[in-house]
Amino acid sequence: MPTIKRSQANQRRQSQHGGTTSFLKVELKHFVLSILDDLIMSQDFAEAGFRSCDIKLALL
To answer: What domain count does the chain have?
Structure first.
């Protein structure tokens, strides 16, 4: 649930210049970015040989 809330907040910040977002609707990009911001997930990705910052840059 915290990941969904972070992704909704990220989406609201980026969509302030137009359009409204539904409370339950979250774009996949913002959801994935919120997962990557999680410290534990970042560590898991690092152990698997990925850098979460590289994945975030690719998404953006």
So the answer is: 1
Q: Which residues contact 16 (CB under 8 A, 6 or more apart)?
A: none
**Residue in 47, 54, 52 with CA at minimum distance from that of residue 36:** 52
What is the pTM (predicted TM-score) of this model?
Answer: 0.49
Instruction: List the domain range (segments joined by +) for residue 16.
Output: 2-59
Tokens of 46: 């690092």
Neighbours of 14 (CB within 10 A): 13
Contact indicator for 31, 59 with CB cutoff of 8 Å = no
CB 6 within 8 A of CB 37: yes
Torsion of CA 51, 60, 6, 34, to 10 degrees: -20
Confidence check: pLDDT of 22 > 60: no
